[in-house]
Amino acid sequence: MAPHRAFSFPLSHVEETAKIPPFAVSKKDVSRLRSCAAFQIIRDLLVDREDVNFCDQHCHDSRQDRDAWLLQRDITYAIIVPVLEIYRHASQVAKALLGNRHIFDLELVFRGEARGAFSWLQCFVKEEEDWCLTRGCPGCIVSYALQAEPTIRMVLVACRLSASLRQQPNTSHLPMFDFWSQAMKKALDEDPFWGPGLWKDFEARAKALEKGIEELVRQCIELAPLAATASQDDESPTSSPKHTFLQDSRAPPHGQPNWVPNIISGCWTTLLADAAEAKRVASPMGIISRPALTRCSTS
After folding, report:
1. Burial, 292: exposed, middle or buried (Cβ in 10 Å; 0-12, 13-18, 19+)?
2. Are 56 and 154 in contact (CB under 8 A)?
3. Which one of 19, 40, 102, 283 is at 20 to 30 Å from 115 when CA atoms are compared?
4. Are 82 and 264 within 8 A, CB to CB?
5. How many CB atoms lie within 10 A of CB 32?
6. Per-residue pLDDT of the chain (299 residues; tens, 9 = 90+)
7. Which of the 8 DSSP states describes residue 4?
8. Which residues, at least 6 apart from 187, have a Cβ–Cβ distance to it below 8 Å?
9. Backbone dihedral region of 175: left (phi > 0), alpha (psi from -120 to 50 degrees) or beta?
10. How far apart are CA 189 and CA 137, in angstroms?
């Protein structure tokens, strides 16, 4: 089982620090995010949701703390959305290829590191759907990011993929979260359960998952023509995958520097377009319905 901090350990710390936003965000970074139109679109959508209320533990926080909880909740969501979008598209590719056969074994469509990454994301999304969709109290959502190794790994790999946008031109309109991994590191170092000395291990796990996700996208691109052909033979109007971030049906060669940021940029473009059209946050996991899975692997 992945390392997991029980709420009972250390109880006094959890009770005390759960009332304070755990991540330090500079005024400069806050100002930069507030001037980013794409990030403000995400914030507006989250504000309009009806399932967001502060719990009894956080509802009495100061206005400044509640604003900080909301900002950090929105940052968390905006960071992980591209990873969830990649998982959603990979699921669509697998469903299109398998049809009604082995619908509960979607990972078998992929191979090697891509299969491992897909299985990990599938397990994580199933177990942490409410957190992925930031349902519930903003303070609890933010605090939960440090609750267990899988949520830490998810945020770190999302930060690494987001950072790849720096390599891509014409992405100045998208939010940059290069400061968030350092905020995570500081929060983890100061946490009495995790403490200093674990960051290298967290980073290594995030790098491994990042590599698997990159291979997953590569295989999705390779399989896209087959998936499109398979979906044409299916009369179901909801089964046809819309590979909005797979604009080139040819898989990029290993070592090509720009294709990963292209994918992340495409995910953001898709997200913002859907948001503008639907005026709501669509569930990135809504295309899959699976029975309960086992706990995420620690490998």
Report:
1. exposed
2. no
3. 283
4. yes
5. 14
6. 455 554 433 433 444 445 688 999 999 999 988 888 888 888 887 876 666 688 888 887 788 888 999 999 999 998 998 898 889 888 888 888 887 665 668 888 899 999 999 999 999 999 999 999 888 899 999 999 999 999 999 999 999 888 776 666 666 677 788 899 999 999 999 988 899 889 999 999 999 999 999 899 888 888 877 777 766 555 444 444 443 433 333 444 444 444 555 666 666 666 666 556 655 444 444 433 223 333 334 44
7. B
8. 22, 23, 24, 146
9. beta
10. 25
The DSSP 8-state label assigned to residue 250 in this structure reads S
Q: Give residue for tokens 């967290």.
A: 202
Cα 205 to Cα 38: distance, rounded to the nearest angstrom: 29
For the chain, helix, strand, coil in percent to 5 are 60, 0, 40
Helix (H, G, I), strand (E, B) or coil at 100: coil
Six-digit token string for 47: 């504000």
What residue has token string 């299916």? 234
Residue 130: closest CA among 257, 275, 283: 283
Give the torsion sign (CA, 21, 25, 31, 36).
Answer: negative
The Cα–Cα gap between 299 and 297 comes to 5
Q: How far apart are CA 14 and CA 121, in angstroms?
A: 28
User: What Å distances lie between residue 265 and 114, 205, 214, 284, 285, CA to CA?
Assistant: 21, 24, 14, 16, 19
Report phi then psi at 36, rounded to 5: -95, 115
